Amino acid sequence: xxxxxxxxxxxxxxxxxxxxxxxxxxxxxxxxxxxxxxxxxxxxxxxxxxxxxxxxxxxxxxxxxxxxxxxxxxxxxxxxxxxxxxxxxxxxxxxxxxxxxxxxxxxxxxxxxxxxx
Length: 117
What we know:
Blueprint: H1 2-19, H2 28-41, H3 43-51, H4 55-65, H5 70-89, H6 94-113
Helix pairs in contact: 1-2, 2-3, 2-4, 3-4, 5-6
């Protein structure tokens, strides 16, 4: 099982890295999952993730206070606006854009109601 947990953790870190450049793919939830998986599989990988200069503070803020940093909130907001703008520019079906807007609006509401670290 330890190998499975470690493999899942590595997949989550990979998805988090992809999420740093793709606007619609979240980063922090994948990092939180990776921390969960690494805690069950490898002390070394768990320590690496928590001590990482970029990822560690995000995970610690969330675990300690359920907080999201202001910069992360702004980046998430800009990414969501960009995704909606691209959808409008590509003239995607209006129903899809409405559903997308509702879902992403809920995501923004969740993000902006979290405490700030």
